[in-house]
Design brief:
By secondary structure, the chain is of the alpha/beta class. The chain is built from eight helices and seven strands, in the order αααβαβαββαβααββ. It comes from Streptomyces albogriseolus.
Length: 248
Amino acid sequence: MFSPEGPRLSELAVQALSSVERGYDLLAPKFDHTPFRTPDSVLDATVAALLESGPYGTGLDLCCGTGAGVDVLRQVCRDHVTGVDFSAGMLEVARSRRRPEGPDVSWVRADARALPFGPEFDLVVSFGALGHFLPSELPRLFAQVHKVLRPGGRFVLPVVAPPRPGSLAHALLLGFDAVMRVRNAVWRPPFVMYYRAVRFGDLWRGLERTGFRVEFLALPEFGRRRDGRPKVRLIVAEKREAGPPLTS
């Protein structure tokens, strides 16, 4: 699962026993050599889908990590791009990376549940961040995204279809989540990272309640499962011109 440049098992153990913020600070120098980074194939497919609906003006990469999502935004945004993350270590690595010509980038350290922006973005993307938020926190997260988007702006994130119940992949994910729950029950501070199956219906309803118009788009590059459902979907949530009150 890990390249030779990735973290050793002992390093992962130390990170797992830290807080989420401290754990990612420690992981940051080797993060791009782990399976936790979003694959380039997903990033490229997202760029292709966004180019069809763009270009956009300003973009925000939510929970940007080392900046892979910022590179997506710089291909589809004309004006300015911002990456926000609460890990200083991740932001340090992101700032140090060489990037081709494109819009200017700002890096901001902040909690995604309390974004320090007004309605100034046309596009918000997020890659692999939902597992770091408990279900009870998602309404607050969606409300923050809604707050920083201009009317008509879009919140876009790719979501992989959950593995089939009874499969080895499904058992491994359940096992990982069980280990994390035990770890958080006996050790402080907690480390919130769960790979539980994403319920598309819950995401849809949560985003609509916050004031988004939602659609799921299949990413055809990844094909379909045996039951006909797409393997990877792009959630596209558009901020309504006059939506209901934001969820607090």
